[in-house]
Amino acid sequence: MDLSRKLRIAALSIVVGVIVLGLKTGAYLLTGSVALFSDSLETTVNIASSIAALAAVWFAAKPADSNHPYGHDKVEYFAAVLVGVMIVLAALSIFREAWIGLIHGDSPVYSLPGIAMNVVAALINAGWARFLMQYGRKARSPALVADGKHLMTDVVTSVGVLAGVVLVMLTGWKVLDPALAILVGLAVLWSGWELVKESVGGLMDEAASGEVLEKIRLLISEHGEGALEAHDLRTRIAGRSTFVDFHLVVPGDLSVKDAHDICDRIEVAIADDVPGARITIHVEPEHKAKHSGIVVL
């Protein structure tokens, strides 16, 4: 994937966040709704997460060096964890404002421009979140996917808050406004937890999906002609990279060159079908066969 494009997209997320924050803040000022205030507060976390995503995308693209021989891809998971923590902090701030609203709050003021501003902000977020998640998955960027997921959560809560605020304005039920803010806080808290849990999986060297593992097994079997079997297949995901290693059993009298040619053929096949694959193959003589791994066709 084009790094410059990823960086532009990450930077554009910050610009989108600032625009949405301006619209939501305007909606809050025009209505005085605690629920809309909580909605705008969540957007400040969106901006912070976009800044973290931009830094992560830039740093993860740095080439491997002597201190990080396997590259810097995992930094994106750290960024995603940081975003998750910020989301949790935002939820706590929302709970505080909701509590104040329950004790001292007044009914929000009906304002058509304020409601319209919040609707426009939600539509902008929805379009951008959908794009970020699609592009992030294609580019294998956990930071961009995390940013998109958080924005989509923001969209869902915005729609709920907006419907509730309109109901408060129509019925005059003051308690509904801070109650909605509490629901927003709970939704935000849940999204933060899910994001942290997902990112920790990446930091803990989570294996590739079952679908990818099956594809790798099939490629080894189809392109390992001349070998006998493969066993001890292991994978781990690190951002854009999928690390693959396994033992390849070959006839004991096979030359080093021929064994190397088989390895090259398998590596090319896996790299073509699994973007970002980094393959390590340990060649073994036939008496090391376990007769329980991948049978070469």
UniProtKB/TrEMBL annotation:
Residues spanning the membrane:
7-31, 43-61, 77-95, 115-133, 154-173
All copies of domain Cation efflux protein transmembrane, residue ranges: 12-204
Q: Name where it's found.
A: Membrane
Presence of keyword Transport: yes
Taxonomic path: Bacteria, Pseudomonadati, Pseudomonadota, Alphaproteobacteria, Hyphomicrobiales
Q: Supply the name of the protein.
A: Cation diffusion facilitator family transporter
Instruction: Alphabetically list the UniProt keywords.
Output: Membrane, Transmembrane, Transmembrane helix, Transport
Which InterPro entries does this chain map to?
A: Cation_efflux, Cation_efflux_CTD, Cation_efflux_CTD_sf, Cation_efflux_TM, Cation_efflux_TMD_sf, CDF_Transporter
Q: A Pfam family for this UniProt protein?
A: Cation_efflux
Q: Where is the Cation efflux protein cytoplasmic domain?
A: 209-286
Q: What is the membrane topology noted in the UniProt record heading this document?
A: Multi-pass membrane protein
PANTHER family (alphabetical)? MITOCHONDRIAL METAL TRANSPORTER 1-RELATED
Question: What family, per the record?
Answer: Belongs to the cation diffusion facilitator (CDF) transporter (TC 2.A.4) family.
Q: What is its main location?
A: membrane
